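README: folding subset

This subset contains proteins for which both the sequence and a predicted structure token string are available. Records are stored as plain text. Below is the entry for Aminoacrylate hydrolase (262 residues), shown exactly as it appears on disk.
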Amino acid sequence: MLSHECRGTGPAVVFIAGLGGLGKFWAPVMDRLQADYTVVTLDHPGSGNSPRRGPQTIPDLTDAVLEVTASLGIARFNVVGHSTGGLVAQTLALDHAQVLDRLVLSSTWAAADRRFRDLFEIRRRTLIDAGLGLYKAQGALLAYPAHLYDRYAATLPPRGRGREGDDPAEVAVTAERIDMLVSYSRADDLHRITTPTLVLGAMDDPIVPFHHAEQLAQAIRGAELTVLSGGHFPPTTQTDLYTSRLRAFLETPVPATSSLPS
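--- output ---
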């Protein structure tokens, strides 16, 4: 069984993490919502405490979410997908719309452009050539704005450490997940999404620049677009604001025409 967490009462909200695949990423947001919602998250297959079960693919991650919700007896839910998790959320909305009430796409994208592909190729080479420590340090340098870096970023690994002590399985899964997120896109299908949608993007996010949020909002009919700040991790760096935006969206009545097909 996949490692997951479920707490709180009320309408179900499922949170899907990004590249790292760890459900604990969502802890600050879940803490603030659990009094009014049933909040659920999971470690992706091959990440955290969830066993690997084959190649890393977005469809498999989508199935993993559905397996967890089915095991909890949750027939319908709201979904919040961050970064790579946003690709999973898009797939749920396209292929399993019957289980969704609302869709939130957070710091994510419709399709990789050249800059995006180059960025993740550099990150992949850092992972393979320089090791996990420098790869993670590079990720923090990119993810957090300068004024928040001291607060959130871990210290750099010692010089000369390289790949010493790295877990080969973690390296392999991370490299696969980078390949997965760069190559997967349902951009041509997004116009078919009818689930009420909120797109959240940060103006100071250098990993997924804000124009990706604009593209998503334009592609999905009726999608709301909200501008945030806090780099690539607003759920961590702007938790109260982020949670308030989620609440406002989840509690806004859905127009009667929102579920009509295109």
